[in-house]
Design goal:
The protein is an alpha/beta fold and 407 residues long. It is built from 18 helices and nine strands. Strand 1 and strand 2 form a beta hairpin. Helix 10 crosses helix 11. It is globular, with a radius of gyration of 21 Å. Bound molecules: tryptophan.
Length: 407
């Protein structure tokens, strides 16, 4: 498949289009607002809906089967390489601005499945620089979140031979020179059109850093299809990267994207946010906290009274506990269908559906937390995942940036 927008990835603006009331939502990496129309977003961003055939060709996963990841860019190139056993890479990162919650691990577990099934190389950059600039937090606080987040990332269980974890400030030797090269083509006008106005020149520069992340697997190991599975608010970074990589004529393919919907926030639709009012479920939450949070805060599709619910049934499509099961936590399609049918018929009450979600989420967190607790010292665990000297050198050479004086 060829991308019909070869060089025009960044021409679309991501800001609120006020032409009709239904279009009044904003999705950029730094602002998500309003009732998101996921189909309209594809038009705005110029990405493509995944076809049934593409979903078939990906390793089987409920996040794809049920179209939580529902769109992409240049997906076929990735699928072809994966099928042929040729090198192919995934990049999915984390902005360490706070504890990680359930929504944050979806792309990570998806990436792990891809790695397991087809041997994808996985790069996981942590943008501590971005979060320092975007949030009102000290570097100490961001550093603490970085360490905590790294425990969660390591607990997912990636293969150290095929996975690299990159931390912007700690790996600045390799990230910075490449970002500078890419920044040459990033004008303030483009940044403003794609991200909206930025408060500081730091944030204006940051897209060059994230573009670097997306090219790193190819700069380290040579040209190969790269797929970036992310929630759709991060797509602007992919578009910027595609444009600037082409302009600098680097020996890389434009990275592709696999775009996901947001895990709904517990108290209703929208993005699950750790900074908004709605509580979110952190990966370190104990079973009592999970149960308490869902029982108290989860928005349901149930009726006002039990009698009415028994008679008319509930609506799983707006029920957040059901949506959590559908997104990730109930992988068995037949079981999920049974739950939906029982809810619609009124046999299953909202409280009972909440308990099912609590059970599944607790099971998942139990496993995750067990692996997290088994980790040794962070430095020792991280070591096999860091770029080697040789890998750094090759990346700088391919990017054509001077390695300068050895330290
Ligand atoms: N900017 C992302 C966030 O705020 C984190 C991130 C950094 C990332 N580099 C990335 C995500 C590369 C995907 C791919 O969450």
């Amino acid at each position: 498949m060829t991308d019909s927008r070869e060089t025009a990835d960044t021409t679309e603006t991501t800001r609120t289009d006020s032409s009709s009331p239904a279009d009044q939502f904003t999705v950029t990496p730094y602002a998500v607002d309003g009732e998101i129309d996921y189909e309209k977003l594809l038009e705005r961003f110029g990405a493509n809906r995944l076809t049934d055939e593409q979903i078939e060709r990906f390793p089987d996963h409920p996040l794809l089967r049920r179209r939580t990841f529902y769109a992409g860019r240049d997906v076929d190139k990735y699928l072809e390489a994966a099928a042929a056993g040729d090198p192919h890479a995934i990049v999915t990162g984390r902005g360490p601005s706070g504890p990680m919650h359930l929504g944050h691990v979806l792309p990570l577990y998806l990436a792990k499945r891809f790695q397991w099934k087809t041997g994808a190389t996985v790069y996981i950059p942590l943008s501590d620089d971005e979060k320092f600039l975007a949030k009102d937090q000290s570097f100490d606080a961001i550093g603490e979140h970085t360490r905590e987040n790294l425990h969660d990332i390591l607990a997912v269980g990636f293969d150290p031979d095929r996975t690299r974890i990159v931390i912007d400030t700690a790996d600045a030797d390799v990230v910075y020179p490449i970002a500078v090269r890419l920044a040459k083509h990033l004008t303030p006008a483009t940044v403003e059109a794609v991200y909206g106005e930025q408060d500081t020149v730091g944030l204006q520069f940051y897209p060059a850093v994230q573009a670097t992340h997306l090219l790193l697997p190819q700069l380290v190991a040579g040209r190969q299809p790269t797929l970036v599975p992310i929630a759709i608010d991060q797509d602007p970074h992919v578009r910027i990267c595609r444009d600037v990589a082409a302009k600098e004529a680097l020996p890389v393919e434009k990275p592709g994207a696999l775009l996901g919907r947001f895990l709904p926030s517990l108290d209703g639709p929208g993005k699950m946010s750790s900074s908004g009012d709605a509580p979110s479920i952190e990966l370190t939450a104990d079973p009592e906290t999970v149960a308490e949070t869902i029982r108290t805060h989860a928005y349901t599709g149930g009726r006002a009274t039990i009698e009415e619910h028994r008679k008319k049934g509930g609506d799983p499509t707006v029920d957040v506990p059901f949506q959590y099961l559908r997104y990730f936590f109930e992988s068995d399609d037949a079981e999920l269908e049974r739950i939906a049918a029982d809810y619609r018929s009124g046999d299953l009450l909202s409280g009972e559906l909440k308990e099912l979600a609590i059970e599944r989420i607790t099971e998942f967190l139990d496993e995750h937390q067990r692996r997290r607790a088994e980790l040794g010292s962070l430095e020792a665990e991280l070591d096999p995942f860091r770029l080697t000297d040789g890998e750094q050198r090759r990346a700088l050479e391919r990017a054509g940036v001077p390695t300068g004086l050895d330290r």
